[in-house]
Every structure is written in C-alpha cells, then in structure tokens.
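ugh finaly. both done.
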Amino acid sequence: MPALENDKYEKSVRNFRYTPATSQVLSFLQDQVLTVTDVTRTKKLTEILDIYAEEEPSEEIFVVQNTRNKNAQAVIADLDYFQELLEIREKVEEASDELMYQVALERKNEKADIDLAQVIEANGLDAKRILQLIEDEDFE
C-alpha cells in the first residue's frame, strides 16, 4: 500500500468507533437482528408479537434489515415501550426548553457585547439569507 493510502487507512481505523465483541453483543446479533426474509418467510414476526402480548411492556427490540440495502433498517419494538421512550424524549425536550427559557429570562437585561457580524461569521450564517427570511416572513 502506498504511504498516502496507508496514512488514510490508519486515520480511518483510529477514528472508527466500535462496540467491543462480547458474548452479549454476539447473542443480540444472532437473536435480535433479522433479515426481511426471516420476517416474511418464517413465523418469527408472530413470535415477536407474542413476546409483546405480555402485560408489561417488553424492552426487547429487534432489528430488521434488508441484506441488499444496508440503509434499509428498522426496529421492531413493543408499542407501550416505544410510547414510554417517546414520552421520555418529550419530557427531556420540555425540560430543555424550560431551561433555555430560564436562561433567557436571566440574561434578558444583560448587555450584548458581541457584534452581530461576529455572531453571523462565527456560526457560518449568511447575512443575505437571514435578511431574505426576515423580508419573506411576517414577524410580529
């Protein structure tokens, strides 16, 4: 391998994040990762739904993937468990919004000592685009 290609390889390997191979990970891959064929040509989907039919929400998840398209992946999860996760996300978002609101209230009387041009440049914003958006929208 030429030196330049070898450097690229070493950098990509160093930056690669991975999950250590443990018996738990291997067990998950064997039992919980399914292909479309597994789901459509066997009773696996019925077995999964039977797991979710129990009274308590199951935290067990399954990954379904299309072997022909690596981006075609989905998760099958208990509906009640998924609803709990959505509620947790909503509460986190609400808490974050409330925190930001409180910070804004605390800072509302503070003098801004940063020039708007600096903020636009530091955040890679396009001043012309901002002005266009202001003109196009009705801000009241």
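ok and the 2nd:
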Amino acid sequence: MEQMNFHKQKLYSLIVAGVALLALLLPWVSINFLGASQSWNGLRGWGLLSLVGIGGVAALSFMGNKTEDYTVEYKKYVMIAFGAIAAGALLFFLRKSSVAGGFDNLVKTGIGLWLCLIAGLAGLALSYGLIKIESKSETTTTNTGTTKITTTPTDTSIQP
C-alpha cells in the first residue's frame, strides 16, 4: 500500500464505497407483468441516501493525511456515512415491501439492493473495528543468516 500513499483502512473504505456505487447502478427493483419487464436502479427514492453516504465516505477518505488512519472524529463520520449507505438500501427495501403488498410475485428485489446493503454493513463493520485489518510485516535477513520479522500493528478501534 506504500505505492498508493493510502492507509489500508482508507483504501478498504474506498473499495467498499466503490462496490456500493456499482450497486447503485445495478437493478434494485423489477416489475414483471403480462410478459413485460421493467427494472429500476438505486438512483431514485431512498437510494439517493446511499449515494450521499458514498460521497461522504469518498470525501472523508481524501481529507487529511491519506497515509494515516482516520482520526477519531473522522472515524465517527465515516461510520455515519456507511450507516447512510445501509439505511438507504434498507429503507428502499421496506418501502418496496409495503408498496408491493400482495404482489410479491410481480415486484422483485434486484441484486443491486442487496449488494448495496451488504456493502453498507461491511463498511460499518470495517470502520467500527469488527473486521480487522492485518498488520504490516517486514522480513529482513541479516549477514549471519537469521531472519528478523517486525510487525507494525494497525489499530482500528475507536478510542473514547
């Protein structure tokens, strides 16, 4: 990650936000009626809340020093942004379920909705520290033939 000049947590957050952005472009809901099919992506309704969350994660990843972990304050904002991604997908699903009523066989949920929800929840787990980022290891060989492995721990926990 040294070539990219990004801290691993910021890079992984950007990757998860990129997956969520891709999920916004995939079908979120499709309606099949009398042989005709119509589908819509997530760039409408509550899906726009997910788009705002994606923008928040991207903006916070580029703010400050990119080679260091999120500060405690920024980490809280990143968690809010990932929560917005997940909440937008969840609210879209709940609204779809309430509007469809008994026509569940006509109105189907698309893969983009589920992928966006999973990306939002994974980003929350990553920023909260439930998904640990491995520590960086360096291997050096000395003149005597012994190998020395040094590790640098990566702290992803939130400090009060």
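summary for the 2nd one i guess: The helical segments are 8-25, 47-62, 72-100, 111-128.
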